[in-house]
Amino acid sequence: MSERAVVTAGTGGIGLETAKGLARHGFAVTVVGRNADRGTSAVEEISAVATGAAPRFLAADLASLDQVRALAAHLAVEGPLKVLVNNIGAMFTQRRQTVDGIESSFAVNHLSPY
Ligand SMILES: NC(=O)c1ccc[n+]([C@@H]2O[C@H](COP(=O)([O-])OP(=O)(O)OC[C@H]3O[C@@H](n4cnc5c(N)ncnc54)[C@H](OP(=O)(O)O)[C@@H]3O)[C@@H](O)[C@H]2O)c1
Q1: 18, 88, 93: residue to mutate for ligand 1 pocket, most atoms within 8 A of CB
Q2: CA nearest to 82, candidates 48, 43, 52, 41
């Protein structure tokens, strides 16, 4: 059975390349992002190089602490992870707040991975 790996913000950019690398090494990779279409195309790309279990996409907006907690609960009931890549990160040039009323960069970069 493949060991499990999760890559947040894994449907594009550095996260997608990381997910593909893990899948090439036989990990069952879960990528997390907000957009389902990006998720679907990421899973197709990852599947093309995977040597272990099929990859999957889970939707979550990691700027929302409710969605972070729901994602964590979903993953936790499935058992331990071998690899967690906390790749999510953002830098907002204008001050803005999340749905929880927290400054967005702090929420996404620090609270969400924690
Ligand atoms: N690229 C660089 O030169 C560079 C340099 C230093 C550090 N970094 C850091 O490396 C990490 C990845 O960078 P990158 O350039 O690969 O970024 P990127 O291309 O902008 O990453 C996009 C990924 O982030 C997801 N994402 C964005 N906001 C999200 C949210 N609120 N919740 C869930 N997923 C979200 C996107 O999916 P959806 O749009 O579907 O949500 C997509 O999977 C970031 O932490 C970045 O700060 C990058």
Answers
A1: 88
A2: 52
In the prediction, which pLDDT does 3 show?
97
What digits encode the pLDDT tens for the residues 34-77?
A: 999 999 999 999 999 999 999 999 999 999 999 999 999 999 99
The residue nearest atom 2 of ligand 1, judged by CA position, is 14
Per-residue confidence band for 1, with pLDDT thresholds at 50, 70 and 90: confident
What is the C-alpha to C-alpha distance for residues 68 and 32, in angstroms, rounded to an integer?
10
Nearest to 33 by CA among 54, 50, 55, 49: 55
Residue 112 CB less than 6 A away from ligand 1: no
Residue 61 has a pLDDT of: 97
Residue 31's φ and ψ, nearest 5 degrees, are -105, 145
Partnered with residue 32 across adjacent β-strands are 8, 58
**Domains with residue ranges and CATH for the chain:** 4-89 (3.40.50.720)
The finding on whether 71 has its CB within 6 A of some atom of ligand 1 is: no
